[in-house]
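Exercise (ungraded).
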Amino acid sequence: MKTKFSRAQIMKILSQRIKRGESIFVANASAGMVAKYSEKNGADIVSVNSWARFRYRGHPEPLPTLWWGGSNEMKDNVFDVHHEMANALDNVPLVAGLEAYDSLFRHTDELLDKAMNIGYDGIQNFPSYGYYIPMRMLRDAAGFGFKRELEMIKLARERDIFTMAYAFWADDAKEFVKRGADVIIAHAGWITGGSTGAPEPGTVDFDFKKEGFRGHPRDLDGTIQLAQEIVTAAREINPKQIVLITGGSLNSPENAQIIIDKCDVDGFEVGHAIDAIPIEKELMRIGKEYKSLQLNPNNPNVNKKGV
Amino acid sequence: MVLNTSLERDRILSQLKEPMPTRKAIVDNWHAQIKKGIPIIYAGCSAGIVAKYAELAELDAIVVYETGLSRHWGMPTTMLADPNRWSFPMYEEIRTQVDKTPLIAGVECYDPRFRGERGLRRMVQTVIEMGYDGIQNFPTLVFIPPTYKLRDPLNMGWKREVELVALCNELDIFTMWYACTPEQAQDVAKAGADAIVPHAGLTIGGKVGAPTTEKRYANTMITPIKDIDEACRHVQEITDAAREINPKIISLSHGGPFRDIASVKYMLNNTTTDGFEAASAWERVPVENTLIETISRFRAVKKLKKK
């Protein structure tokens, strides 16, 4: 059986990393194979959610404004994939992304119970409505918006469940810290890289800022800026707050190194950058190499004169 | 309003039929490449992501069967029980990534839900209606003659696999058939198979590859052939036997020590086969390698300057 981790045990793993001057590395897994090699190569936490499978099916991950609920029940949802993930793991915390604003889970306590009973060691607010203010307002008025994400984190903390909260805005980071989130993950928008990544930053002509929208991808500087903004805000409330970065231009170990050096985050969460991008690169390379091999000229079906 | 009953619906539906390459188109395309000395490479794909890049890397066919799922779970290649119930629903995920590459269905032809001669026809109807472009015998009993000898009297053995080839030949459907012995290769060549896949046992290598054993029972051919020269002799013998019946039959080696560019290059240099089936060598070993490399590079990221 995969080892179970209490909140205190996970916090100890993370604080030891920080003490040693190392980065916290959360691997978001899209398949058992990805989870397995994440643990074997030193990830501190494996996170899973209902949407990561899109990457393993070869698609871009959709932006959360597309769907307003139902993630917890969709095909290959976070509960369905638990067995595949836990089966590939031995001794690493496994964290579930839960859709707090799912209208089929009006009772958030039931959502948390379901995740913990199935064997998860912690929870995240994924998908999140955090990044789009008008949509948040609309859905909050209906009772199924961003406020539910705040409530879910608070409720989890009360039950001593480990939590990692995605924050797109400084104010949201503060609210999550006030509610006891163990880790804040600064989200720098849709991740770029590979053929299934977001459009390159700046290539879509739209005033995202004016619209109150923060899901757009950021370049490296923008990613660092966003990370620092969230770190500063979170640590105003709790100076010891653990803050990670994800999304935007955090799409390679090289960029991760630059980001880690240039701002005060404690580490990062990566998904697309550990599975979709490298698998694409490796398979394209190896596929072309296979096709460039030559058949034996003694093969009776090969034209000996060479066409 | 006059209701035009079924005719209008038929007119529309007939325009929405999925395009399908003819058997002749696939075979001619492959022979044209072989003539130029280009090896035919086909990929076993059980996830959208690996199918997508098989198509983009311009491999020659994509085969869907259930064992690949176990690879993506991070487990050793595993023959799963009730295989058609696993593999048939994978169609949508794979097809959506595949526009121009022939998509081949791996079918278990002893599936009790498709019993008898009528059942066999219904099975072909099912996969062709789904939208597959050809058929392969996988999972198959070619590896285990003691089992298929016992099952043959119940019409659940090798003879049924040969019957399926004959039926596809009658219906002009492309077939690509695993064979572990020269006799099996001749059986399916006589029944009209377009290609044979000489099988050297489970693929060795990578992180969860098949174990190699010194002893290989004569009739348990799932055990990998360890020695590459012996494996080359094995696939050559099967190829020669099939070409005795049909000189134009296409021979695509698979398994055993053939797992990467170097070993496949060696195989093509030392045999007169026409290409290679990459299954573990496509969707497992390269994915493992790239995951390990990328994840360990992310793990190595740490703050260069101490705070």
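Further reading is listed at the end of the chapter. For now, observe: The mean pLDDT of chain B is 93. Chain B touches chain A through 70 residues (CB under 8 Å).
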